[in-house]
Specification:
The protein is mostly beta strands and 303 residues long. It has no helices and 31 strands. The protein has a single domain, classed as TolB, C-terminal domain (Neuraminidase, 6 Propeller), CATH 2.120.10.
Length: 303
């Protein structure tokens, strides 16, 4: 492992690009940022508030989950997020033209319900995308989150799962038939069968959220975002454990990959053979690069 970039303001949502650069967000700084192969950092767009997860979609544009903003806790040169920011307005999905930095708001509500804190995003092979809404925390009050599906042209958004407790990372199996969601506070990984674009098969009560529990690691481990390997393993960034936890699709095996940071928030795969992992070490504001034991899954629109 080596450090490609430092001084980032709580990086998240890395996306490996064909030119060798990495697109990511700096949540505290409010930017969509590009890290070049030589480590040089440049701002692509000043989005404001709390840009969080990123995915490349149709036309090569970046689709960004903006959580609307956190309060920030700093100390010893480290950052961590707190409750909803005092100037919070709303959560939303924004679309950024990477060539110009211009962006537009695509979704900020679903029907009568405002989005609270969109967090992570993944495109399916039908031109739509799934995303999580983490919810928001204000003092003693917590908004529950959920899972949404939306069309990339702005024409439709659906709330597919509601009432989840801090849903965070989201990803699809290699065949696109299984949706995975990592839940932060509980440290659990859930899955559903995808039966049509924007539609999940839900298990009957008492299955929580109508989902299948893939794994719960236990101990003082919270789950953040995730990436899937070409073999179908789910790699979850594990807060508080200084690791990425790689979980088999059946939940029967979990391998811890140590990372030198207390707040490991996300990873993506890139490189010619998809065996290069780019990992955001957010507490210290670092983007790390590491060889991975297996190839990562090439995402839809990751040409």
């Amino acid at each position: 492992m080596h450090i490609l970039a430092s001084g980032l303001r709580f990086p998240e949502g890395p996306v490996a690009m064909l030119d060798g650069s990495v697109i990511l967000v700096e949540i505290e700084r409010g930017t969509l940022t590009r890290v070049l192969p030589n480590g040089h950092v440049e701002v692509v767009a000043q989005l404001g508030d709390g840009p969080n997860g990123v995915a490349i979609g149709p036309g090569g544009k970046a689709y960004v989950c903006n959580n609307g903003g956190f309060e920030w806790i700093s100390g010893g040169g480290r950052l961590r997020s707190g409750a909803q920011s005092q100037d919070y307005s709303s959560g939303r999905i924004e679309v950024v033209d990477l060539a110009t930095g211009k962006f537009e708001r695509m979704y900020d509500r679903c029907g009568d319900h405002a989005l609270k804190g969109p967090n992570d995003i993944v495109f399916d092979n039908h031109g739509g995308f799934w995303f999580t809404d983490l919810g928001k925390r204000r003092g003693r009050v917590i908004d529950f989150g959920g899972v949404y599906w939306a069309r990339a042209d702005g024409s439709e958004i659906r709330e597919v799962v509601h009432g989840m407790f801090t849903p965070n990372g989201i990803g699809l199996s290699p065949d696109g038939n299984t949706l995975y969601v990592a839940e932060t506070v509980t440290g659990r990984l859930w899955s559903w069968e995808v039966i049509a674009p924007g539609t999940l098969r839900k298990r009957a009560w008492p299955a929580q959220y109508g989902a299948t529990l893939v794994a719960g690691i236990g101990g003082q481990v919270r789950f953040d975002s995730l990436a899937v390997t070409a073999a179908g393993n789910i790699c979850v960034a594990a807060l508080d454990s200084c690791s990425v936890v790689e979980i088999s699709a059946d939940g029967g095996k979990a391998t811890h990959h140590p990372m030198p940071d207390l707040l490991v928030t996300n990873l993506c795969f890139g490189g010619p053979d998809m065996r290069t992992a780019f990992v955001t070490l957010s507490h210290q504001g670092l983007l790390a690069v590491s060889d991975w034991p297996e190839a990562g899954l090439r995402l839809n629109y990751q040409e």
